[in-house]
Specification:
With 275 residues, the protein is an alpha/beta fold. It has a single domain, classed as Alpha-Beta Barrel (TIM Barrel), CATH 3.20.20. It is built from 11 helices and 10 strands. The strands form 2 sheets. It has an 8-stranded parallel sheet with strand order 3-4-5-6-7-8-9-10. Helix 3 packs across helix 4 and helix 7 packs across helix 8.
């Protein structure tokens, strides 16, 4: 199976990836299962504690390293220039790779000048430790600032996106800058699985609720969801979303599910006011 890719500023990112947050000791098995099921996009972070398992799972899968799009992130505690480089090198050692394909600032840190952090991020690309760079959990204002400060193209902003959260303004900001939106928590950490609208659409299409929610995202054309699972069957099901389409009416019904308090990840001390 060939997974479609999204492109931005020279990066080609497989449209669905495996998220590894909170997988812990199950990460190696999950990554191996995902790669053998056809995934070619794996997302991890220093903060997740899964980098070692991700590296082990990649090697166990038998999939060549150059076929895998690997993302990791530098945590908000380590955004000073010296800390940033040290953390990046530690991640590469833990993963057991010479470089990652995408390196992200995991969360902004208002206590550290953004110019210093962006400078450290782009230095990692120039030194060959990552092929591409981007950010995560940036508001549109922070995203504008980061792009002005960066002498390398930022290819993605990884943010929480699912039907219960209205991310219209952030999606528009990424599109304005020609960026891909990487969607974490695309299944709302399980909150979507009891939704009657999604269940009805899933029955009509002979699909799972997860497949409907993921199809809603990928059908928008510039969103790459990274669902997390440790169950091999669900991992395999989650990538099987490219052989059907939702109708315009179904897309609209799902889009109408957004609610005022739909956000899951919300450390306001790092971000301030969300869009």
């Amino acid at each position: 199976m060939s997974t479609p890719v999204l492109t931005a500023h020279g990066a080609s990112i497989p449209t669905i990836g495996l998220g590894t947050s909170m997988l812990g000791s199950r990460s190696a098995e999950a990554v191996c299962a995902a790669l053998q099921a056809g995934y070619r996009h794996i997302d991890t972070a220093w903060k997740y504690g899964t980098e070692r398992g991700v590296g082990d799972g990649m090697r166990a899968s038998g999939v060549p390293r150059n076929e895998i799009f690997l993302t990791t992130k530098v945590s908000h505690e380590y955004l000073r220039a010296d800390d940033f480089e040290r953390c990046t090198n530690e991640s590469l050692r833990t993963l057991g790779v010479e470089h990652v394909d995408l390196l992200l600032i995991h969360w902004p840190n208002p206590k550290i000048p953004l110019a210093e952090t962006i400078g450290a991020l782009t230095k990692m690309k120039r030194e060959g430790l990552t092929r591409h760079v981007g950010v995560a959990n940036f508001t549109s204002t922070l995203l504008d600032q980061a792009i002005r400060l960066s002498d390398e193209p930022l290819v993605t902003n990884q943010i929480e996106v699912h039907p219960y959260l209205d991310q219209t303004r952030m999606l528009e900001a990424c599109r304005r800058h020609g960026m891909i939106t990487t969607a974490y928590c695309p299944l709302g950490r399980g909150r979507l699985f009891t939704d009657p609208v999604l269940a009805d659409i899933a029955r009509s299409n002979g699909r799972t609720i997860a497949q409907i929610a993921l199809r809603w995202l990928v059908q928008q054309g510039d969103i790459a969801p990274i669902p997390r699972s440790s169950n091999p069957q669900r991992i395999a099901e989650n990538i099987q979303v490219f052989d059907f389409e939702l109708t315009a009416a179904e897309m609209e019904r799902i889009g109408a599910l957004k609610r005022p308090h739909g956000r899951i990840a919300n450390p306001v001390e790092r971000v301030g006011a969300w869009d």
